[in-house]
Amino acid sequence: MIITSMMKYIFMAAKRDKLVLSLFLMMIIGSCLSVFLGSAAVIEKQQFVVVFSAGVLRVISVLGLILFVTFYMRRSFDSKEIDYLLSRPVSRGSFVISHILAFMVMGVATALLAGVSLYIISYASFGAGHLLWIASLVVELVIMANVAFFFAMVLTSASSSALACVAFYALARIMGQILGILDANIGFSEIEAVNYLMRFIGMVIPRFDLLGQTSWLIYGFEGHADILFMGVQLMSMTLLLAAASFLDLSRRQF
Amino acid sequence: MLFRNENIARGLFLCALLLNMAVLFSVQGKKTSWANVPPVPSEQSAPFAALGDPQFAYRNFGIMIQNFGDTGGRTTSLNDYDTEKLGAWFRFMNVLDPHSNFIPFLAAYYFGGAENATNMAPITDYLEYIGSTTENEKWRWLAQAVFIARYKEKDLDKALLLANKLASMYEDGMPAWTKQMPAFVTMAAGDKKAAFGIMAGILAGDTSTMDPAEVNFMKLYICEEILDESQARDYPLCLTAKH
Fold first, then answer.
1. Distance CA B222, CA B201 (A)
2. Which of A47, A55, A186 is nearest residue B53 as measured by Cβ atoms?
3. What are the pLDDT digits (tens) for A46-69?
4. Chain B 2-61, CB below 8 Å of chain A: which residues?
5. How many CB pairs lie under 8 A apart between chains A and B?
6. A41: which residues sit within 8 A by CB, 6+ positions away?
7. CA nearest B169: which of B194, B203, B135, B200?
8. Closest of B138, B129, B187 to residue B162, by C-alpha
9. What does the pLDDT look like over A136-170, one tens digit per residue?
């Protein structure tokens, strides 16, 4: 009951911040720009439009969620809303769980919004590859919303939290390339310790490069999509971030 | 202290605005320079630019290649491109997406359309490379390589090599001209005997899967293009060839 009320409270904050409207407008502008850019190609115009749109929609969705979560959380800390909430019969555990669940719902809703935009752009070729792309975007957004929640808890500034999230996201998207370079023995760095460090980082940073591949929108699965991996990564990362956020909150003195 | 007097602040604002306008006006005619085709990124690092999404990287780089040297009101003659670097870009793009026909199209019909380019070899080499795969009628790019080698590079030896490669890829369903291509090139080189040998060889083989129009075309080509009138009169096939 408390968790549901808390979730409603967070959705009201999203409504107050005009998150959906802002995302919707940004997605329309991004899609229009993609159509304009893709139409400039001499052939395969539709493929260009779909790929550009999907790439832009993904980035807009991720940035929108990161900015909302980090600024909402920091504002809640600064305005003592959290102190007030925790003075009520709301345990720290239910506080974290309700936020994690609310951000999950927002991640799903944002991915569906992006999916609808993608459908409008490519309804003629809409198929299983598109559905898989939307599903992987759900995974990506839910994880990133929870990453933003964690950073907003740990860092004291909304700007630095948002920047940390963007850096985390960029690293997660290119982690596969970094590991590929390490595996090819090209050497990421001349200092061996850095290579080991990158391998260690690769064990705690999610593999977003295996999600949201725009090639699925044109050529279908091609055997690269691992749906089981998506689900496992979603659960394991959410669990890790929830535990880390709870640990941080439990050590706080209000 | 200075901004306490509003008039001084306004005057300063106006001066600053005019100064900015003057500075920016002085550079309005300046354009960033374009030092020809840029170096190719490494295969490993390229997807970094598109956050680990090779297809997104392919489409981004694709638009960039299409517009090389033609941005911001600048136009560049097709003859002035560094084709060595273009060839490297084309091969690099094939790593990001081996299925798309966008880059082969640019190579064949856009960059391959240069009238006086000094070095078309990287483009024909790339088209040969792409056209050697059996996927989705990619052999058409090999045919385009033959065309460029023959008419743009004017290198008939190379055109014949490519044409032979194309002919060796022939299978049912492909147009007969892919098999006939070596004959066309040898005719262009003036070697009628070789051209005759190729065409007669095709006709002597199994033509049951070919369109009758293709078979008739080969007969006419032998009788009207390769053989002269007197030779045609003595060649039995020409007596039955339909005109």
1. 11
2. A55
3. 999 999 999 999 999 999 999 999
4. 44-45, 47-48, 50-56, 58-59
5. 80
6. A48, B59, B62, B63, B66, B102
7. B135
8. B129
9. 999 999 999 999 999 999 999 999 999 999 999 99
